[in-house]
Amino acid sequence: MDLYEALYTTRAMRRVEPDPIPDEVVALMMDAAIRAPSGGNAQNWRWLFVTDPDLRAALAVLYREAWEELTTTLYAGRLERAEAAGDETTVRILRSSQWLADHFAEVPLVVLPYHRNDPSGASIYPAVWNLMLAARGQGVGCTLTTILGMFRHDEVAELLGVPTDRGWTNAAAVTCGYPRGRWGVAARAPAHEVAFADRWGEPPPWRVDRPLWPDRIPEPRP
Ligand SMILES: Cc1cc2nc3c(=O)[nH]c(=O)nc-3n(C[C@H](O)[C@H](O)[C@H](O)COP(=O)(O)O)c2cc1C
Fold it and tell me: Model's pTM, two decimal places?
Protein backbone atom coordinates (compact mmCIF):
# COMPACT_ATOMS: atom_id res chain seq x y z
CA MET A 1 0.00 0.00 0.00
CA ASP A 2 1.06 3.55 -0.76
CA LEU A 3 2.56 5.28 2.29
CA TYR A 4 0.33 8.36 1.92
CA GLU A 5 -2.81 6.29 1.54
CA ALA A 6 -1.99 4.62 4.86
CA LEU A 7 -1.25 7.97 6.51
CA TYR A 8 -4.43 9.61 5.26
CA THR A 9 -6.88 6.75 5.76
CA THR A 10 -5.85 5.02 8.98
CA ARG A 11 -8.83 5.80 11.16
CA ALA A 12 -10.57 4.61 14.27
CA MET A 13 -12.22 1.47 12.82
CA ARG A 14 -14.50 0.35 15.65
CA ARG A 15 -17.00 -1.79 13.78
CA VAL A 16 -15.15 -4.98 12.86
CA GLU A 17 -15.93 -8.57 11.93
CA PRO A 18 -15.32 -11.35 14.48
CA ASP A 19 -13.01 -13.29 12.07
CA PRO A 20 -9.59 -13.99 13.58
CA ILE A 21 -6.52 -12.21 12.28
CA PRO A 22 -3.88 -14.66 10.99
CA ASP A 23 -0.74 -15.03 13.09
CA GLU A 24 1.49 -13.87 10.23
CA VAL A 25 -0.42 -10.58 10.11
CA VAL A 26 -0.23 -10.17 13.90
CA ALA A 27 3.51 -10.87 13.75
CA LEU A 28 3.92 -8.18 11.08
CA MET A 29 1.96 -5.66 13.18
CA MET A 30 4.22 -6.31 16.17
CA ASP A 31 7.41 -6.38 14.12
CA ALA A 32 6.48 -3.01 12.56
CA ALA A 33 5.52 -1.60 15.97
CA ILE A 34 8.93 -2.24 17.49
CA ARG A 35 10.67 -0.43 14.59
CA ALA A 36 9.32 2.81 16.06
CA PRO A 37 11.60 5.17 17.96
CA SER A 38 11.70 5.35 21.75
CA GLY A 39 13.65 7.75 23.95
CA GLY A 40 17.28 6.58 24.12
CA ASN A 41 16.12 3.53 22.17
CA ALA A 42 15.05 2.16 25.58
CA GLN A 43 12.22 0.02 24.09
CA ASN A 44 10.68 -0.09 27.52
CA TRP A 45 7.57 -1.82 26.32
CA ARG A 46 5.67 -5.10 26.52
CA TRP A 47 2.70 -5.96 24.35
CA LEU A 48 -0.19 -8.23 25.27
CA PHE A 49 -2.14 -9.76 22.37
CA VAL A 50 -5.47 -10.98 23.72
CA THR A 51 -7.49 -13.38 21.56
CA ASP A 52 -8.79 -15.85 24.18
CA PRO A 53 -12.62 -15.59 24.12
CA ASP A 54 -13.00 -15.75 27.91
CA LEU A 55 -10.43 -13.02 28.47
CA ARG A 56 -12.00 -10.89 25.74
CA ALA A 57 -15.40 -11.34 27.38
CA ALA A 58 -13.93 -10.27 30.73
CA LEU A 59 -12.25 -7.26 29.10
CA ALA A 60 -15.56 -6.41 27.42
CA VAL A 61 -17.28 -6.17 30.80
CA LEU A 62 -14.56 -3.83 32.04
CA TYR A 63 -14.65 -1.79 28.83
CA ARG A 64 -18.40 -1.34 29.12
CA GLU A 65 -18.06 -0.22 32.73
CA ALA A 66 -15.35 2.24 31.70
CA TRP A 67 -17.51 3.57 28.84
CA GLU A 68 -20.45 4.02 31.19
CA GLU A 69 -18.24 5.83 33.65
CA LEU A 70 -17.04 8.15 30.89
CA THR A 71 -20.51 8.86 29.53
CA THR A 72 -21.90 9.64 32.97
CA THR A 73 -19.01 11.93 33.99
CA LEU A 74 -16.71 13.64 31.48
CA TYR A 75 -18.97 12.93 28.48
CA ALA A 76 -22.31 13.38 30.29
CA GLY A 77 -24.89 14.98 27.96
CA ARG A 78 -22.43 15.13 25.05
CA LEU A 79 -24.52 13.01 22.65
CA GLU A 80 -27.71 14.92 23.44
CA ARG A 81 -25.96 18.26 22.94
CA ALA A 82 -24.39 17.13 19.67
CA GLU A 83 -27.75 15.86 18.40
CA ALA A 84 -29.48 19.12 19.35
CA ALA A 85 -26.75 21.16 17.63
CA GLY A 86 -26.79 18.99 14.48
CA ASP A 87 -23.11 18.16 15.05
CA GLU A 88 -23.02 15.07 12.82
CA THR A 89 -19.31 14.32 13.33
CA THR A 90 -19.57 14.10 17.11
CA VAL A 91 -22.80 12.10 16.88
CA ARG A 92 -21.09 9.64 14.52
CA ILE A 93 -18.06 9.23 16.81
CA LEU A 94 -20.21 8.70 19.89
CA ARG A 95 -22.50 6.19 18.13
CA SER A 96 -19.53 4.25 16.84
CA SER A 97 -17.91 4.35 20.30
CA GLN A 98 -21.15 3.03 21.75
CA TRP A 99 -21.07 0.21 19.18
CA LEU A 100 -17.60 -0.75 20.36
CA ALA A 101 -18.70 -0.70 24.00
CA ASP A 102 -21.67 -2.94 23.09
CA HIS A 103 -19.66 -5.39 20.93
CA PHE A 104 -16.21 -5.38 22.53
CA ALA A 105 -16.30 -9.14 23.18
CA GLU A 106 -16.69 -9.79 19.43
CA VAL A 107 -13.49 -7.94 18.51
CA PRO A 108 -11.08 -10.77 17.61
CA LEU A 109 -7.87 -9.15 18.87
CA VAL A 110 -7.14 -6.59 21.56
CA VAL A 111 -3.55 -5.37 21.81
CA LEU A 112 -2.54 -3.90 25.15
CA PRO A 113 0.80 -2.06 25.07
CA TYR A 114 2.47 -1.55 28.46
CA HIS A 115 5.31 0.88 29.14
CA ARG A 116 7.36 2.10 32.07
CA ASN A 117 9.54 5.11 32.88
CA ASP A 118 7.64 6.94 30.14
CA PRO A 119 5.18 9.26 31.91
CA SER A 120 4.40 11.35 28.80
CA GLY A 121 3.77 8.31 26.59
CA ALA A 122 6.14 9.82 24.02
CA SER A 123 8.04 6.54 23.79
CA ILE A 124 5.07 4.22 23.33
CA TYR A 125 2.59 5.99 21.05
CA PRO A 126 4.83 6.09 17.96
CA ALA A 127 5.04 2.28 18.23
CA VAL A 128 1.29 1.97 18.75
CA TRP A 129 0.74 4.03 15.62
CA ASN A 130 3.25 1.89 13.68
CA LEU A 131 1.24 -1.17 14.70
CA MET A 132 -1.97 0.46 13.47
CA LEU A 133 -0.39 1.50 10.16
CA ALA A 134 0.98 -2.00 9.57
CA ALA A 135 -2.49 -3.37 10.31
CA ARG A 136 -3.98 -0.90 7.82
CA GLY A 137 -1.57 -2.19 5.17
CA GLN A 138 -3.03 -5.66 5.70
CA GLY A 139 -6.65 -4.42 5.63
CA VAL A 140 -7.04 -4.75 9.40
CA GLY A 141 -8.85 -1.93 11.19
CA CYS A 142 -7.83 -0.76 14.66
CA THR A 143 -8.97 1.71 17.26
CA LEU A 144 -6.66 3.21 19.82
CA THR A 145 -8.70 3.28 23.04
CA THR A 146 -7.59 4.51 26.44
CA ILE A 147 -10.66 4.31 28.68
CA LEU A 148 -9.80 0.84 30.03
CA GLY A 149 -6.48 2.16 31.29
CA MET A 150 -8.13 5.33 32.63
CA PHE A 151 -10.98 3.70 34.54
CA ARG A 152 -10.12 0.00 35.01
CA HIS A 153 -6.32 -0.13 34.96
CA ASP A 154 -5.80 -2.39 37.97
CA GLU A 155 -8.67 -4.74 37.11
CA VAL A 156 -7.23 -5.29 33.61
CA ALA A 157 -3.75 -5.85 35.05
CA GLU A 158 -5.10 -8.36 37.55
CA LEU A 159 -7.03 -10.22 34.85
CA LEU A 160 -4.00 -10.49 32.56
CA GLY A 161 -1.33 -11.00 35.22
CA VAL A 162 0.51 -7.74 34.51
CA PRO A 163 3.28 -7.02 37.07
CA THR A 164 2.29 -3.42 37.81
CA ASP A 165 4.50 -3.54 40.92
CA ARG A 166 7.43 -3.45 38.49
CA GLY A 167 6.17 -0.24 36.93
CA TRP A 168 4.31 -1.57 33.90
CA THR A 169 1.54 0.85 32.97
CA ASN A 170 -1.10 0.39 30.33
CA ALA A 171 -0.92 2.83 27.41
CA ALA A 172 -3.93 1.69 25.40
CA ALA A 173 -6.19 -1.12 24.33
CA VAL A 174 -6.02 -1.31 20.55
CA THR A 175 -9.00 -3.16 19.14
CA CYS A 176 -8.24 -4.91 15.85
CA GLY A 177 -10.32 -6.71 13.24
CA TYR A 178 -11.39 -6.78 9.61
CA PRO A 179 -13.59 -3.73 9.00
CA ARG A 180 -17.32 -3.73 8.49
CA GLY A 181 -17.12 -0.19 7.17
CA ARG A 182 -15.04 1.54 4.52
CA TRP A 183 -11.79 3.46 4.82
CA GLY A 184 -11.85 7.17 4.12
CA VAL A 185 -9.69 10.24 4.55
CA ALA A 186 -9.85 11.58 8.09
CA ALA A 187 -11.69 14.91 8.25
CA ARG A 188 -9.71 17.42 10.29
CA ALA A 189 -9.38 21.15 10.78
CA PRO A 190 -7.20 22.23 7.81
CA ALA A 191 -3.43 22.09 8.29
CA HIS A 192 -2.86 25.83 7.69
CA GLU A 193 -5.36 26.71 10.42
CA VAL A 194 -3.36 24.94 13.11
CA ALA A 195 0.19 25.73 11.95
CA PHE A 196 2.23 28.90 12.50
CA ALA A 197 5.33 30.16 10.72
CA ASP A 198 8.25 31.10 12.96
CA ARG A 199 6.16 32.93 15.55
CA TRP A 200 2.95 31.97 17.30
CA GLY A 201 -0.02 33.36 15.41
CA GLU A 202 1.83 33.99 12.12
CA PRO A 203 0.18 32.14 9.20
CA PRO A 204 2.30 29.71 7.16
CA PRO A 205 3.05 30.58 3.49
CA TRP A 206 0.91 27.65 2.26
CA ARG A 207 -2.74 26.63 2.43
CA VAL A 208 -4.33 23.21 2.18
CA ASP A 209 -8.01 23.63 1.46
CA ARG A 210 -8.58 19.95 0.70
CA PRO A 211 -6.53 16.82 1.50
CA LEU A 212 -3.40 16.54 -0.66
CA TRP A 213 -3.79 12.78 -0.99
CA PRO A 214 -4.53 11.20 -3.45
CA ASP A 215 -3.98 13.65 -6.31
CA ARG A 216 -1.65 16.39 -5.11
CA ILE A 217 1.27 14.58 -3.43
CA PRO A 218 4.53 16.32 -4.46
CA GLU A 219 7.16 14.30 -6.30
CA PRO A 220 10.01 13.49 -3.91
CA ARG A 221 13.42 14.99 -4.61
CA PRO A 222 15.30 12.48 -6.77
C1 LIG B 1 -5.28 9.08 22.95
C2 LIG B 1 -6.52 8.53 22.28
C3 LIG B 1 -7.48 7.91 23.06
C4 LIG B 1 -8.63 7.37 22.46
N5 LIG B 1 -9.52 6.69 23.24
C6 LIG B 1 -10.60 6.12 22.67
C7 LIG B 1 -11.47 5.31 23.45
O8 LIG B 1 -11.25 5.08 24.65
N9 LIG B 1 -12.54 4.75 22.84
C10 LIG B 1 -12.79 4.94 21.50
O11 LIG B 1 -13.78 4.40 21.00
N12 LIG B 1 -11.97 5.70 20.72
C13 LIG B 1 -10.87 6.28 21.27
N14 LIG B 1 -10.00 7.00 20.49
C15 LIG B 1 -10.24 7.19 19.04
C16 LIG B 1 -10.64 8.64 18.71
O17 LIG B 1 -11.93 8.89 19.20
C18 LIG B 1 -10.58 8.86 17.19
O19 LIG B 1 -9.29 8.60 16.71
C20 LIG B 1 -11.01 10.27 16.80
O21 LIG B 1 -12.35 10.45 17.10
C22 LIG B 1 -10.78 10.60 15.34
O23 LIG B 1 -11.48 9.68 14.54
P24 LIG B 1 -10.76 8.98 13.29
O25 LIG B 1 -9.53 8.31 13.84
O26 LIG B 1 -11.75 8.00 12.77
O27 LIG B 1 -10.45 10.05 12.30
C28 LIG B 1 -8.83 7.51 21.06
C29 LIG B 1 -7.83 8.13 20.27
C30 LIG B 1 -6.68 8.61 20.86
C31 LIG B 1 -5.60 9.22 20.00
Answer: 0.98
* 221 falls within a domain: no
% of residues, the chain, pLDDT over 90 = 99
Residue pLDDT, tens place only, 38-52: 999 999 999 999 999
Residue 141 CB contacts under 8 Å (≥ 6 apart), including other chains: 11, 13, 16, 135, 176, 177, 178, 179, 181, 183
Strand partners, 170: 114
Alpha carbons 184 and 37: distance in angstroms, whole number = 27
Distance 125 CA to ligand 1 centre (A): 13
Q: What is the pLDDT of residue 119?
A: 94
Total domains present in the chain: 1
CATH code, 124: 3.40.109.10
Distance 209 CA to ligand 1 centre (A): 24
- Domain span including residue 14: 6-188
Q: Give the residue whose CA is nearest to atom 23 of ligand 1.
A: 12
Mean pLDDT of 24-28: 99
